[in-house]
Structure formats: structure tokens, C-alpha cells
Amino acid sequence: MKQELLNTLVERGLVTDNTLVYAKVRTTGLGGDPTIVKKDVYWFPDMPAGAILDIEGMSPERFAQAYNIKPDGQAKIYKKRGRKPKNESTCLSKQ
Fold it and tell me: CB of 3 within 8 A of CB of 15?
């Protein structure tokens, strides 16, 4: 996973402290030796982007694609369609 993609997902609030990720995490083994294992953990801000393998059971690229974000972290902002809220339309008519 790229750092730019992770930054975009965090900015939009799609990855929070309650997000379950499958990642490579440091742990201590039976002999007290530090080892790296792959397991499901909750995302924390100090987690490197390269350690994340899955987000909520999907690959990071597929997770981003579901929210119209490209794998490199770029997101196109679309213009909202439909009726404008009343408070905006009354402000426009007064001018």
C-alpha cells in the first residue's frame, strides 16, 4: 500500500482507530526474540503503510476503488447535483 493512498483514506475518515486491518506487526516470540507476524489488528496512526495487507477484508486498492479513489491516492471531487438547500437559495435571491 502506498503512503499517499493511506493519507487520503485517513483524511476522508475511511480509516479510523476502529478499522480492522490485516497487517504485518512486530511481536515477541516464544524465546523472547522479536518477530514479525501477519494478523488482524485495529489501525493505529503510527502503522506504516507498507505493513497493511488488507483493509476490512479487501485489498487497499479495491477498498479505495469502492469510494472512487485511485490507487495512487488521488480523488476526484464531483459537483453535487439536485436541489440546493433553502438557506442557500434565499441568500441568492436577496442579492
Answer: no
**Are residues 27 and 37 in contact, defined by beta-carbon separation less than 8 angstroms?**
yes
Q: Are the CB atoms for 56 and 68 separated by under 8 Å? A: no
Chain segment 76-91, per-residue pLDDT in tens: 776 777 787 777 655 5
Q: pTM, whole model, 2 decimals?
A: 0.72
Pick the closest to residue 2 from 57, 56, 63, 76 (CA basis). Answer: 63
pLDDT at position 44 over 70 = yes
Residue 65 inside a domain? The answer is: yes
Q: Write out the H or E segment, with its range, that includes residue 25.
A: strand 20-28
Residue 15 near residue 66 (C-beta atoms within 8 A):
no
Residue 91 lies in a domain: no
Residue 82 resides in a domain: no
